[in-house]
Write a structure and sequence with these properties.
4 helices; about 130 residues; transmembrane helix; DUF423; transmembrane
Length: about 130
C-alpha cells in the first residue's frame, strides 16, 4: 500500500466533489452552457484520476522509481488539465484572461496519458514473468 497515492487520490476526490457541487449549484447560471460542459469535463477527469490514484495506492506491482514517476505525472496532469479547464471555463467571470494558459490543458492531458502508459507497460511486463 502506498499512502502517498491514497492521500493524493482522496484529496483530488474530495476536491472533485466540492468543485463539482459548486459548479452545479453556483456556477451554472453564471457561465455559458459550453463553458459549463467544459468545466464538467475537468471535474470528470479529476475524479477518474483520483480513483486511479486510489487504485494504484493499493497495488504493489510497480517499482519505486515507476511509482514516483507515475505519481508526479498524475498529480501534475490532474492539476494542469483540470485546473486549466476550470480557469478557462470561468474566464469571463474575472478580470484575468486565462486564455494565455490554454496550452497547459494538452500538456496536462499528455502527462495523464504518459502515467497510464507507464502503468500499462508495467502490467505487460508482469505477464512476461
Amino acid at each position: 500500500m502506498n499512502k502517498k497515492f491514497l492521500i493524493a487520490g482522496a484529496i483530488f476526490g474530495l476536491l472533485g466533489v466540492i468543485i463539482g457541487a459548486f459548479a452545479a449549484h453556483g456556477l451554472k447560471p453564471l457561465i455559458s452552457q459550453e463553458s459549463f460542459q467544459s468545466f464538467e469535463t475537468g471535474v470528470k477527469y479529476q475524479m477518474y484520476h483520483a480513483l486511479f490514484l486510489l487504485i494504484l495506492g493499493g497495488w504493489n506491482f510497480l517499482s519505486q522509481k515507476l511509482k514516483d514517476a507515475t505519481f508526479y505525472l498524475l498529480v501534475f496532469g490532474i492539476t494542469f488539465f483540470s485546473g486549466s479547464i476550470y480557469l478557462l471555463a470561468t474566464n469571463n467571470l474575472t478580470n484575468i484572461d486565462f486564455r494565455s494558459i490554454a496550452l497547459v490543458t494538452p500538456l496536462g492531458g499528455s502527462l495523464l496519458i504518459i502515467g497510464w502508459l507507464l502503468v500499462l507497460i508495467s502490467i505487460l511486463k508482469l505477464k512476461k514473468k
